[in-house]
Design goal:
single chain, alpha/beta, 6-stranded parallel sheet, 6-stranded mixed sheet, 14 helices, globular
């Protein structure tokens, strides 16, 4: 096991509040109880049920609508990504996280990846390339693995591929050694309040770099990092010798993701020619322009990861001859003008809308005189009934909602699984 001096130094002798008690919060508690067993520890979460079973004799519990007030009672706060502090006046010097501490401890061996869209695919691809070429690599972060969970497995040769959300990047004090910034589109306004605040959090993946670090980004962000000490690689301009017919990732957006992945590996000191053969064995992730299959003469694609208009546009540009497009869900008040303009220029025969986001898209398209068939549905079962009544053999049906799923589903994965289940029975 590698040494973890920086993390211990930050936590030693402090009273510690774990803010948010989901998967990462539980990981933090297990870490503290193992390595700082005498620390004064509190756990705060708005959902009291999340803390069922905790030993209240040793751990202070805070829940209910005022649970954030617990911040004032502790020296240091390990905040989990889902907790928003945008409307709370707190001492930010107390705020840290697994991400923040891990970046300070293991900075030199981290390839960090962020972007509104494409970060999971790019992170998973880099991990695949590293593992298949014989490296000791770990995939952690927003992909679902808390970083504290892998510390005991790390060696001096380990390379950590860290998928980073804006939530994780918001309060960090150091950027990764290699940082990929794929794109920034309007999203998560419910958490950050403004697009500017969300964008600033994303930019932290590079803003806190030193002169030995590498920023893998694109022309869009060149002005932002004009004064950065980091070396810069613009992944848009690289043209690697790749047989694209053998690559399972389709679409121009995925070509950029692949370029970014290869550029990051190059910056880390790994020969790209050694990695390219392993591109051809990479399997795309579920719920990302995923071909579900052809059932009842209709071909179904599951792009449930699409939670912004740019993602839906990318899907329509990649998947040809879409006749049914399912849109909408939870409304986070993002701007749907780009999608409306795209659909007006490139009409889809049947549009199906749901939720408050769908209602807003419906109204915007109606206001610009959209001529296609527009339908409203309450749930996916009703959507499939509409498709069944109107579909012809050879049609393509795409779920690419351009909206979050929280009004009906736990997450986009649950929405995608329901779509696939219904498609298989069509």
């Amino acid at each position: 096991m590698v040494k973890i001096n920086v993390i211990f130094k930050k936590l030693r002798g402090k009273s510690i509040l774990i803010l948010g008690f989901g998967r990462e919060g539980r990981s933090s508690l297990a870490f503290i109880q193992k390595y700082q067993p005498h620390a004064v520890v509190g756990v705060a979460d708005g959902n009291a049920l999340a803390m069922n079973g905790l030993n209240t004799e040793r751990i202070k519990i805070y829940s209910g609508e005022n649970y954030l007030d617990a911040i004032n009672d502790f020296d240091i706060v390990l905040k989990t990504p889902g907790i928003s502090l945008k409307d709370k006046d707190v001492d930010l010097s107390k705020i840290t996280s697994q991400t923040d501490l891990f970046l300070e401890e293991f900075h030199d061996r981290i390839i960090g990846v962020t972007g509104t869209k494409g970060k999971s695919t790019t992170s998973t691809l880099i991990h695949h390339l590293l593992k298949e070429s014989g490296r000791d690599a770990f995939l952690v972060g927003n992909i679902g693995v808390p970083v504290f969970d892998i510390i005991e497995k790390l060696t001096q040769n380990s390379i950590i591929v860290f998928e980073l959300s804006a939530h994780q990047l918001q309060y960090i004090h150091r950027s990764p050694h290699i940082g990929i910034l794929l794109n920034v589109f309007e999203e998560h306004l419910d958490h950050f309040g403004t697009f500017a605040a969300y964008r600033d959090a994303k930019l932290n993946i590079i803003k806190k770099m030193g002169d030995k670090d590498w920023a893998v980004t694109k022309e869009d962000f060149s002005f932002e990092f004009a004064d950065s000490l980091a070396h810069t690689i613009n992944f848009e301009y690289y043209n690697y010798d790749i047989d694209w017919d053998k690559v399972a990732l389709n679409g121009e957006h995925n070509r950029l993701n692949i370029n970014a992945a290869l550029c990051a590996c190059y910056a880390y000191g790994i020969p790209v020619d050694e990695l390219i053969p392993h591109l051809y064995t990479f399997e795309p992730l579920e719920h990302r322009q995923e071909l579900v299959g052809t059932f009842g003469g209709v071909t179904f694609y599951n792009d449930s990861i699409s939670t912004i208009p740019q993602a839906a546009i990318a899907a329509l540009n990649t998947i040809k001859d879409v006749k049914f497009l399912l849109l909408g869900g939870f409304d986070r008040e993002i701007d749907y003008t780009p999608l409306v303009e795209h659909l007006k220029k490139n009409p889809v025969r049947h549009l199906l809308f749901t939720g408050n986001a769908g209602k807003r898209m419906f109204d915007m398209l109606k206001n610009v005189g959209y001529q296609g068939d527009m339908n409203v549905f309450c749930d996916l079962q009703e959507a499939f009934s509409i498709v069944k009544n109107k579909a012809e053999k050879g049609d393509v049906c795409l779920l690419s909602p351009a909206a979050a799923s929280y009004d009906q589903y736990k997450n986009f994965e649950e929405r995608g699984k329901m779509f696939k289940e219904l498609a298989s029975k069509f």
